[in-house]
Structures are given as C-alpha cells and as structure tokens.
Amino acid sequence: MSTKFRVVLGLSGIIISFILLATYFGIVPDRVAEVRAGRADLAESIAVHSTAMVIKKDFKQLVHDFTIIVERNSDLLSIGLAGNNGSLMAATPGHKDHWQGMDGKYSKESQVRVPIWNGRTKWGELELRFVPLRQPGILGLVQSPMVRMILFVGVGSFVVFYFYLGKVLSILDPAKAVPARVRTALDTMAEGLLVLDHKEQIVLANQAFAEIVGKTSNELLGYKAGVLPWQDMNGSVIQKEQRPWVQAITRGKVQKNRMIRLVLADGQRLSFNVNCSPVLGKGKKYAGVLVSFDDIT
Q1: Does domain 174-295 have CATH number 3.30.450.20?
Q2: Selection from 153, 133, 107 nearest residue 30 by Cα
Q3: Where are the domains of the chain?
C-alpha cells in the first residue's frame, strides 16, 4: 500500500467522520426520522377525525374518507378501524391482507396504531399500514439514504483526492526542486553529500552517499539522517545533541573535520571526516545544513 493511497484513505475517512458527526448533531437532516414524524402526524390527524365519526357511528362515511386518504398518500397502503374486540368496524379494501398482527402497545415505522377514545373509555384502535421505509437485509442497508450518501462521498472523495494529490505531489516533488545539471554535478563528487532540514530529514542526497548506505537518492528523501547507526571513533553511539549537523544548526557555526563512524548492515564500519555548514532561512533562522562525508576508512 503506497503512501499516497494511505493519505487519500485517511482524508476520505476524515470527511466521512464529519458527515457522521453532522448527522449525530442534527446538522444533516435524517430523512427516515422525518418520514416517521410525518406518518405519526398523519395518524394523529386521522385519529381525531375518526373519533368524531365513531361518536356519530357513521362508519360508512369513515370508510369513504379512509379510501380518499389512501388514494392521496402513495406510501399509505391501507387504513382500518378496529374495536376493542379486534373486529374491523371500517377499513379500506385489502387492509386485512396488509395488516400484520403486532405484540405490545408500540407502533412500527410501517404499522402505526393510535387509540380511539369515546370519552374516558377506550373504544378501539386506528390502524395504518405504510410502505416499509427500507427493504430487509443487505438491500435495505444499501437503500438507506445515510449509507448511500456515505458511499457516494467516500468513493467520490477518494477518487478526487487520489488524482489531485498525485498531481500536487508531482509538483512538490523535492527531487524536482534541484535542477538536473546541479544534481549531476553533485553526483560526480567522490565524497558523500547531504542537505538536511532542521529536523534532520534528508532533502538531498548525492549518489556517493546513497551508494554508501545501499539506497537510491530518491529513497533517502525524507529519511532522518539521525536514524542511521552513527558512532564516535571509540565505538559509542552518538546522541542527537552530539551529531555535527545538529550542532551546526543549533549553534549556527560551521563544524569542520569532525570524525565519526557509520556501521553498515553487514557490520562493516566506515570512518568519515565530516564538515557541516548551516543554511540560513527566513527570519535569520537556520533552516538546514549542508553535510559532506569524506571517507577516510
């Protein structure tokens, strides 16, 4: 997995996280919640009208009204009015087939029940059967507006970021910051040469130094020079504050003829005469250092 791929994946993940947070705090509207609220309001309105018809015992008119309401609401399949004994007193055609028995007293998103009262006595229940908001299983999950938005934004942002970041990285490639003729001249030098920033990260490495550590110049870009196994001439590990290039930046002075060793992967020890010259940046602060390695092994 390339670095660009991981960066793009992280950026897309951040965007998706913000979408989820916005939904949690109510900044992004929840369509399913709004539909549920609308169905509840519709059920309450029909219940008020049904209560008046029950008092008048005008069930024929109630069936007519139910039929009109179903015809004008595409997501409403049927309406029924059941007494306390469970018998239907008024219902639209097919309500018995649409309505499914329910346990408990709470409604569902596709089946809403509202109690009908005659004074202080419960007369029965109004039953409304709606089209399910989502299909069961994986299909229903994919049809969820939130999941579809996350998939669209996630995949879309990943593709856009991938190509955009690729273009930006090609422009900001440190290897292209040095003209080809300058790099060629540095590669002809027999001694190793590094340009480090204030964090010891390699900004430029010539071919001689790359061959010493067994890497290419491009592979060394961004690599921290302090990670390499440096030792003093007594074989002790050189701490950060003792490294010549670190002292050159912190003190702002050229470090000349500093003797250090580098332990290679095969155990071989190379001795170098190191010279470090700090590079002045903006605000009269040292932004980096030029380091030369003369192999005196």
Answers
A1: yes
A2: 133
A3: 1-172, 174-295
